[in-house]
């Protein structure tokens, strides 16, 4: 399977399944404890957002989580991390089975995150941007005591504005650079990426978080790209003007979040590297996975507390991850 666009500029297919799980069930899928399963892959930045938000809000008891392995072929993500290669709740080997069960002729991407209706085995949605918003707004009844407000009403316009430019130039910008099929398309994406990162550095030099004085949805979305920057995007996607570790403000900001419960403890660097360097064979035909980078810096002092801010607002940090959801030993950052 080819990922780079041989004609030039990479354009992401954003035709997602827009069915929503809501408190009032208006799309036919009401919020119900135990009914749905969130399928993720730790390697994927879009899925990583949902992993973090589910954890911060304390939804583990009401929304189970299935974890696909870091690599896949043209057909689908697989559950090769589970005994027998099958998801223990859904009983399937490939995520595509849940997609085809609802849409037998489904022709779009089999993507994570995806939420599956357990009783029917059918996918409900893979609309990653809406999934995390709905976890904040539609699942409120089941949030843990002390859950933070990640999408507060008074800040939504600002959060949405930040999210739009971060998606275009950073979250998707690294892919537009990495999957470019011409020098011109690559340099255009590269320029927009680092211009935006420089602008974000300027903003974050004077405030601890992107919007307001607490962690919001905007921080979650930027973080998952920054966490993968040196491990994958700098080399694999040729985003190599600067490493994250060479951008002082963003590096400190990323370390601040990484050391916040619910963020760094969801990051699996081994899966991240294996996914990008093994799956994208047209970019890395040898499929050699790099040994670096050194990860010990993620746990060093960041000094961002001096900017003030309250990570969880009036709420509290989440408890440690559940035993079955802990990042395997040796896959995270080391001290």
From TrEMBL:
It holds the Pfam family GST_N_2. It comes from the Bacteria. InterPro entries: Glutathione-S-Trfase_C-like (IPR010987), Glutathione-S-Trfase_C_sf (IPR036282), Glutathione_S-Trfase (IPR040079), Glutathione_S-Trfase_N (IPR004045), GST_Omega-like_C (IPR047047), GST_Omega/GSH (IPR016639), Thioredoxin-like_sf (IPR036249). Residues 152-276 form the GST C-terminal domain. Residues 299-335 are annotated as: Disordered. Residues 324-335 have a biased composition (Low complexity). PANTHER family: GLUTATHIONE S-TRANSFERASE OMEGA-LIKE 1-RELATED (PTHR32419:SF6), GLUTATHIONYL-HYDROQUINONE REDUCTASE (PTHR32419). This is Glutathione S-transferase C-terminal domain-containing protein. It comes from Paractinoplanes bogorensis. The lineage of its organism: Bacteria, Bacillati, Actinomycetota, Actinomycetes, Micromonosporales.
